[in-house]
């Protein structure tokens, strides 16, 4: 009797970039770990996708889903997750590619990390180092010094330390957290990793297993001069909603027993840490606005910095 569902569902969101997307899908189908499906989620492309889909249509592991265009990466990934049949989810941006052993090594790392552990103590996610290419040039990552394994939340607050294409995670946790925010154009991954890492530790592989490519058509990160404001506003939503105070303990997240955290609880400490980082980001952004003559916007973020700086004891 054949197995009904694959173990891993790989979601590839795409909008128009059929040439590079073909490379991405191929890198999934040629993985040494074969118990998978790849779901290509077309965000309402205006360019024809027939040649791309016909290229992979003979492989039963390939699925194509077209949705109405939203321009929101989180929404596209969430739609793919709705169709996913695997116990694990992996995401691959359409302009990135995986090295052949990516899933095999990550699956082995998760199994080793969780050997003998009950479900409520499991590490639900493993990510890995990347090769960064801009055109044909390899971009150095020597200055990237941040925690990548275990409790990475404090460093994840400062910047987006987990790339979507690098991850393999348990679908139950993705569903538990409600997926990515579907209304954000940028920083939806930053916001999601904050929620996940405030509750769970993560595993990490030092070996680069992803080739992250820039310069292959329009990219959201290059559409704007800077994207820090998007991370700032994504964090603002979590801080104002006191998300961490209500969810930053795994057991609390499951039972929703309380709406507020005790002052000295772990949830309260994580909430306070998020508020401090939010206040710091607000101050930095306000300084930049002042320098560029945007006084009204600067005042708004200075007020936010003062509000949460005072709340955090600054």
Please give the structural blueprint.
Blueprint (H helix, E strand, L loop, with lengths): L7 E7 L3 H12 L6 E7 L7 H7 L5 E5 L6 H11 L4 E4 L4 E3 L3 H12 L11 E10 L2 E3 L13 H6 L9 E3 H7 L10 H10 L5 E12 L5 H4 L4 H13 L2 H5 L2 H6 L10 H26 L3 H17 L3
Parallel strand pairs: 1-2, 1-4, 2-3, 6-9
Antiparallel strand pairs: 4-8, 5-9, 6-7, 6-8
Helix content: 40-55%
Rg result: 20 Å
Count of individual helical segments: 13
Give me the secondary-structure category.
alpha/beta
Which consecutive residue ranges, at least 5 long each, have pLDDT under 50? 251-258
- Total DSSP E strands: 9
Q: Given the C-alpha coordinates, what overall shape results?
A: globular
